[in-house]
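Quick one - inputs below.
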Amino acid sequence: MNTFTYYPGCTLRTKAKDLDTYARSSAEALGISLVEPENWQCCGGAYTTAKDEIATKLSAVRTLNSAKEAGQPLITVCSACHNVIKQTNYDISHDEDMAAKVNNYLKLDEAYTGETTVYHYLEMLRDVVGFDNLKKKVVNSFKGKKIAAYYGCLLLRPSKALAMDDPENPTIMEDFIKAIGGTPVIYAQRNECCGGYITMEDKAQATKRSAKVMNSAQEQGADMIITACPLCLYNLKKNSGSELPVYYFTELLAEALGVKEAGNE
Amino acid sequence: MNNNLKEQVLRSSGVNVLKCMRCGKCSGTCPSYDEMEYHPHQFVYMVEKGDIETLMESKSIYKCLTCFACVERCPRGVEPAKVVEAVRLATIRKQGNNHLIPDAIPEMLDEDLPQQAIVTAFRKYTK
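Output:
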């Protein structure tokens, strides 16, 4: 059995429980064991790129280090957590000055310098389980469903740190959709921003951005749209004004594997 | 022209603004273009010229969504979003300059708003 350190993040414990519970029940069905580290902290939601910001990067390093100490790769599900943790891991591996400052703060038994391998749940499906194997385990196919994958900004960029897929022509979510029997819908806005946290500052801007995404998917004939990000889901559902259904990709995965009810227990 | 501030922004962002060839692709791809008084390419140019205070006082610093589109698509690897971030930090690090205060949060809440939105906004707007 493959065992991974699993980092849920703050929102998966509160407003995005579906993203979390379906990820767990599906992993179990796929023979993947997810172990949550003790005392994990919120990643902060956004990576602070500034070189003179150290404290804001520490919670991500603590998470990375707990996976290192467990001797396991780290799995994330939320796009924002993934982005913060991946960028932190990239910078601590490439910026000696930052790594030194971070380790001066943390005083770990052994300095952390980027040893942990980080997978987004989608990458785990692609690289560990394999989409061909996933396909064989599907009991409820999404055959005939036109599904639009919404990458947003955080899963793909900056690609030198995230390294998940081609940042302009990604295929990982489309391959996932094919594996569960659906028909992927390609649309122009699939890797453009939904407005993100600007919903706190300027609702109108969030509405403008998220409506653009939804209309773009709808124009290409999508029946539904899937995302890995709680804030994308919120903007697309609440701010866009569109009726197109939005789901977490883990919900479709659990449904396809026949473990959706297990996730709701 | 404020050399101290310019130095601070260059050091904090780690960006070499001299690499910019002013093609404007960063602004062309920016999802907040319409909402900004100064656009990503102008941030890069104005930092080069040392005109930092104008940027620090502009609402444009709160409009960047940190979507990294400009970072990804710059043909010269300039990474304009990092410049915007460094200028915003120069502003909000000043005493009393937090752009979002905790007391303002309850009014912004609705039953579906994810915690992620709140923590991200705090990280972006508050020191």
